[in-house]
Amino acid sequence: MSQFIDLKDYDASIHREILDALTREDDAVVEICEDRAIAEMRCYLSKRYDCDKIFSATGGKRNQLVLMIAIDIAVYHIFTIHNPRNLSPIRKERYERAVKWLESVADEDISVDGAPLLPEEVRANKSNFLMKSNRKRVNHW
After folding, report:
1. Distance of CA 72 to CAs 39, 75, 117, Å?
2. Residues 77/33, Cβ–Cβ less than 8 Å
């Protein structure tokens, strides 16, 4: 169960009546979708950022951009429970935009301002860049 997203955080993205109708007023469904959204985000962010610190933040200490992306992904998962064939185009677009943003962060094209980075040694081990060389050659003439 995630403490990162509060139920009132959804008010900026979806009306409470719609959320209640989609989940049949079952807050457990919302929590499951939140956990799935955060797990999906961890796959992209864990390469450079300390996800434990990011997702354990509460209240005003949370990164608002990361929160917005998490809510967009969670709302998308909630909508797919109801009727995946008649999914709202805006929800699909917001989800695709969120995934594209996460891919850009993972590719290090963009950074998350204010997000805690992993220690340098850990980031170096997870880096795509690797420098190697061939064995030393010994030539005898």
Report:
1. 14, 5, 23
2. yes
69: CB partners within 8 A, 6+ apart: 41, 98, 101, 102
pTM of the model: 0.82
Mean pLDDT of 58-79: 94
Each as own residue / partner, the long-range contacts of residues 26-29 (CB below 8 Å, 24 or more positions apart, any chain) are: 29/78, 29/81
Residue 47 buriedness (CB in 10 A; 0-12 / 13-18 / 19+): middle
Using only C-alpha atoms, the chain has a radius of gyration, in whole angstroms, of: 20
Which band of pLDDT confidence, cut at 50, 70 and 90, is reported for residue 127?
A: low
